Amino acid sequence: MTEQLYVQQRAHLWLWLLQRITAILILPALFIHMIILHYVNPNDIIEVQDSAFRLKGVLFLIVDSFLLFAGLFHGFNGVKNIVYDYVSKGSNRKVAAWLIAAAGLFMLVYGMYGLTYLMLRTDNTQAAIELARSAAFNITVASGVISVVVLVLANMLWNRDVRADAPVSGGGSS
Fold first, then answer.
1. What is the rounded end-to-end Cα distance, in angstroms, of the chain?
2. At what angle do helices 2-34 and 58-86 cross, to 10 degrees?
3. pTM for the full model?
């Protein structure tokens, strides 16, 4: 039992530490991303073709991939921490953590698909451009919806825990 507790505490320590590290590292990566995109040539209109061309460069691919990974990890780990504030029962926490991890992994794979698609894209047809735009929009909407659903489910699980732990009122003598 002591060894299992030690392993759990170590895992929580690493998640806590990675939450802080991603918070610190997202800022300079976002700064680099914004400076290059919006201030190097401020009169340029940013098009999907430009993004596809930029992602062929290693620096952009590294920065954008890091932003995707760090942003998703930071956000979904934050959601998990919020859920843990509401859910006290261990089995419910485990289910919520697995659901959050699965959602985060799905969003990471989908986001990497979008980045890879843009990087490897060679045509500028309207269909290809629309697919890239819809992928970016879908990942944004899906991550928001998944976060809301997980928080609602966590609240429902928390309320079930509270009802289960509530004392049963004795009936009727005053």
1. 46
2. 130
3. 0.65
105-161 per-position pLDDT tens digit: 888 888 887 777 777 766 666 676 677 667 667 776 777 777 777 777 766 766 665
Please say whether the beta carbons of 79 and 146 come within 8 A.
no
Strand, coil or helix: what is 143? Answer: helix
How many H-runs (helices) and E-runs (strands) does the chain carry? 5, 0
CB contact set of 45 (below 8 Å; sequence gap of 6+): none
Residue 141 domain-assigned (yes or no)? yes
Q: How far apart are CA 83 and CA 154, in angstroms?
A: 6
Helix (H, G, I), strand (E, B) or coil at 122: coil
Cβ atoms of residues 66 and 123 within 8 Å = no
How big is the chain, counted in residues?
174
Instruction: Give the separation between CA 93 and CA 83, rounded to whole angstroms.
Output: 8
For residue 132 the two structure tokens come to: 């890239």
Domains held by the chain: number: 1
Rounded (to 5) percent helix, strand, coil in the chain: 85, 0, 15
Examine residue 173 and state whether it is found in any structural domain, yes or no. no
For residue 155, the number of C-alpha atoms closer than 13 Å in the C-beta half-sphere is 6
> For residue 110, what are the domain limits?
2-164
